[in-house]
């Protein structure tokens, strides 16, 4: 996975994510909307045979919102892993 920042402004953050498809991008977009300061979060894949997407986030402090969303997702994954380990 590789990230290339395309736009880093006060209220807009846009980056290209190489090596990922819909699964991670849908999860990230959905989690970003849990941040009250985010007005828009989405992505586009220019061509289905190319493994890269453009992610756009608009609102109050969008780069921090992406970082916070990733941390919340990681916590959810960690919690899920702990629950699975308890299964017999």
**Radius of gyration computed on alpha carbons:** 14 Å
Shape: globular
Number of domains: 1
Low-confidence stretches: none
Q: How does the major sheet shape up? A: 4 strands, antiparallel
CATH homologous superfamily title: RNA polymerase, RBP11-like subunit
Mean pLDDT: 95
Can you put this structure into words, describing what you see?
Strands 1-2-4-3 form a four-stranded antiparallel sheet, with helices on one face. It has a single domain, classed as RNA polymerase, RBP11-like subunit (Gyrase A, domain 2), CATH 3.30.1360. Helices cover 41% and strands 33% of the residues. With 88 residues, the protein is an alpha+beta fold. The protein starts with a strand and ends with a helix. The protein is globular, with a radius of gyration of 14 Å. The mean pLDDT is 95. The longest helix is centred in the last third of the chain and has 25 residues, at 62-86.
Q: Helices, strands, pairings?
A:
Layout: E1 2-8, E2 12-18, H1 22-32, E3 38-44, E4 52-59, H2 62-86
Helix pairs in contact: 1-2
Characterize this entry briefly.
This protein is an alpha+beta fold and 88 residues long. 41% of the residues lie in helices and 33% in strands.
Structural key phrases:
4-stranded antiparallel sheet; Gyrase A, domain 2; alpha+beta; single chain; 88 residues; 33% strand
């Amino acid at each position: 996975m590789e990230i290339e920042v395309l736009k880093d402004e006060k209220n807009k953050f846009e980056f290209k994510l190489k090596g990922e498809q819909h699964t991670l991008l849908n999860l990230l977009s959905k989690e970003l909307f849990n941040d009250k300061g985010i007005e828009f979060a989405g992505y586009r894949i220019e061509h289905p045979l190319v493994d890269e997407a453009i992610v756009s986030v608009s609102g109050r402090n969008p780069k921090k919102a992406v970082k916070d969303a990733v941390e919340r997702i990681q916590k959810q994954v960690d919690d899920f892993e702990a629950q699975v380990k308890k299964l017999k």
